[in-house]
Design a protein that fits this description.
five-stranded antiparallel beta sheet, 14 strands, 31% strand, SH3 type barrels, BirA Bifunctional Protein, domain 2, 2 domains, 22% helix, seven-stranded mixed beta sheet, alpha+beta
């Protein structure tokens, strides 16, 4: 069981994680946090976390699998003073924060656009950012799932070839509370001090920068070379002499 009293003393933040709501079991931490936002009970920086997420959502309506008591599944509420077109920087920033926190545990994770945390081509975590416009500006909930102390048999068989965990990389478990605190600390640093640098930080950790990729989006398939992200966090594919900006869709390395 996660112990919140082990998280907050390790926080160096001024607002991220200063309020943490813990559910032993729930459907979705994003859904729970939106309910708190809608009722007026959530404050910016509030975190909802669970030990057992049973109906987690990924991008494109996919299900996110979480092994009870082994991974980290949490959501953060933000009311950023950002134009809507720059909200994509927040999920990129969370990816950087997770990668940097994992590096403190000697796990050299990489990032895959738009929202995956990977290790040697296997999925270590994912991020789902959802936003709404309100009279006060954008409201954003960023959900994050990290495979922490799972062994391969803890994943469904259909995920055995794709998934990896910190335990599987290191050969030992780690303290989830410490990983959470490190992630929240780094995320606030990025938000407060260097949001404009998030794209360069993200590109330094990108697993497929300069590689041929295939992108399937609402307007069909594009194939080209991934050249990075623009200041709004959109992915960029070079096709011939043209650069195409990517929004919602799926990106994969193109087979040679």
């Amino acid at each position: 069981m996660l112990t919140i009293s082990l998280v907050q003393p390790r926080l160096t933040t001024s607002f991220i994680g200063r309020e943490i709501t813990y559910y032993p079991s729930t459907g979705s931490t994003n859904t729970d946090l939106w309910a708190l936002v809608d009722s007026g009970e959530a404050m910016p920086g509030q975190v909802v976390i669970t030990d057992d997420q049973q109906s987690g959502r990924g991008r494109q309506g996919r299900r996110w699998f979480s092994a009870a008591g082994l991974g980290l599944t949490f959501s953060i509420f933000l009311s950023p003073k950002l134009p809507q077109e720059r909200l994509g920087l927040l999920s990129l920033g969370m990816g950087v924060a997770v990668a940097d926190a994992l590096e403190l545990e000697n796990v050299k994770a990489r990032l895959k656009w738009p929202n995956d945390i990977v290790w040697e081509g296997h999925k270590l975590g994912g991020i789902l950012a959802e936003s709404r416009m309100t009279d006060e500006g954008p409201a954003v909930v960023i959900g994050t799932g990290i495979n922490v102390n799972e062994q391969i048999t803890d994943f469904p068989e259909e995920l055995h070839s794709a998934a990896v965990s910190v335990y599987m990389v290191l050969g030992r478990p780690i303290q989830r509370e410490l990983l959470l605190a490190s992630t929240l600390n780094r995320f606030e640093e990025l938000l407060k001090d260097c949001l404009d640098d998030v794209t360069s930080f993200w590109q330094e950790r990108c697993d497929h920068l300069g590689y041929p990729v295939r992108f399937d989006g609402p307007d069909g398939r594009l194939e080209g070379r991934f050249t990075g992200v623009n200041p709004a966090g959109q992915g960029l594919i070079e096709i011939g002499s043209e650069i195409h900006e990517l929004s919602a869709g799926d990106l994969d390395l193109k087979p040679e």
